[in-house]
Here is the input.
Amino acid sequence: MFSILRINTATGKIKKESINSKEYLLGGRTLSSRLVSQEIPPTCDPFGKHNKLFFCNGALSGTNVSSAHRLSIGSKSPLTGGIKESNAGGILGLRMAQQNLRCIALEDAPKQGSPWKIIVIGKDKTELIDGTFLEGKGVYEKSELLSEKFGKKAGCVTIGPAGEKLLLASGLACSDPHGVCSRYAGRGGLGGVLASKGILAMVILNDAKVKPSYADKDKFKEGAKKIVTLLKENPVATKFTKYGTAAMVDICQSLKVLPTRNFKHGTMEGAEKINAQAMYDIIKERGGEGLTQHACMPGCVIQCSNVYPGKDGKLLCSPIEYETMALMGSNLCVKELDAIATMNRIANDAGVDTLDCGAAIGVAMEAGLAEFGDCDAAIKMMEEIRDATPLGRILGSGCKTAAKVLGVRHAPHVLGQALPAYEPRGTKGMAMTYLSTPMGADHTFGFTLRDEDDPTTKEGKVGLSKKFQVIGSRMDAMGMCNFVRYSVRDDMTPLLDLIKARFDVDITDTEFDDFVKESLRLEHQFNLDAGITAQDYRFSETFYEEVQPESGEKIDITDEESAEARKW
Amino acid sequence: MVKVNFKLSDLDSVSLTIIESEKLKDLLERVSQKYGVELGDFIAIRGGKVITKDDLVLDNDEIDLFPAISGG
Here is the structure.
């Protein structure tokens, strides 16, 4: 049996339900998307009382399986107007498992002007307590205060000032293993959704130690070891350990898909100044609190994360991921890692998505508000977002809004969500994925780049994107880290065997993929019912008109082709 | 000679003699055996364009080999 804890944020009423189903067993996006589809009216106001937030951990959360404690958060997105599954690492998934929870549902909304609250979930009770002392503070300060009050090992999710102001780029900041809310469920504006429910933080206390039960403990142990072996032996997974996702800077530069100058170009002169080797060398030189490998959740052997130190050796930002290095780096022609780290830190503190804010700043530079390459100006714009100045509110609402206000046609988004760090005219597979995921432009929901024999042609890319939408969604479907997919890409048996050993439930690979495809169907149906039409799944027109200089390509994907890639 | 540059790798660059054209996968098999490396999945780029395992490599080609990872 699996538990869902329902919390009414208007009345404070708490209800716990127990449900036994394969959807609850799998958890993750399998569960969060079904709950969104079943319980949230698609036409509701994302900041209104009918929207909900579903926090779901996965099938292997709470066990010692590597990379198994991801958190899937489902809701209606204020940024896209459609369904959102936002995903984070950290310890929240684990803490939920230790409290024997598969899902926490935040429902309803208090009257405007009600005092801010913190939800505290412990083994004996769940309550809403006064949260006003957190109001207006940055995420780093909120983290410290939450750690002081509830202990460093409590699992917390909080929002920054951007979320409090309902900015569309606001995210949810979740505890890392060190008690800092640094792991972001960044995309989709869900920070604002939490704020609309009058909640500044949710805390899961470290006071319960529900141990996972196993149908066959020996088989489970054997299976968990097998996962570690698969991860350590996979030559691709091991690259993440040394360089993290930063390795993509060189790859994308070579493939001419490194977003540069507001997504006008696919390469940046001087990209080597912000590549993986440059970051690795800086971290090693500065030492101190810097780490080139770092786990975002206990027990993970991939350890793709990092800790980037300032010149004084103290932590400046953790982590810095490729998407941020591109959207706040090459996209702005910024060639200094310290500047990127500073912007990332401000984004973390403000509680905003680095991709959406990086894209918005690129639009602002295109509009002439600053020169491309001006690091100080870019940092200043991030400060405006943090301080919620009028310009900051515009930028913190994402690049679609920023482009409309600032008069820029070349706005890099689909459904209002900023393009991730692969310039779509240079990779038609990723372009197809951006146009066909239900979440808005998203790279994790169908990563084709490494498998495109010719990235510049659209031939075969409907099938390729759909193939990888399934492969990519498998890990989200059960709360595993996306990077585990490299080790189980062609054979899900090791994970399905673990489910069998834990729950004595057989799920074949076909049945598992059927769950994944059904999730995609439900997500697309939600969007349709929310009023999102085929015409909305498009890039800005300039991507179809203007050639990317390096590859010589424009977007030539038709509405019919992208619609095909959305059919499940 | 064909030069293969291993990017993001402890192995730097290697040069191999080829007599006629050779499929990339066969060339890399030779590299793997000669240098005792396991390549795993990769992205190969020649002259700014992606080449596949079955594409022919010619004398004087220079190929950049990247591990096939992704962003996140």
Remarks:
- Chain A touches chain B at residues 234-236, 239-240, 242-243, 245, 247-248, 250-251, 254-256, 276-277, 304, 321-323, 420-422, 443-444, 447, 449-455, 482-483, 486 (CB under 8 Å).
- Residues 428 and 458 of chain A are 5 Å apart (CA to CA).
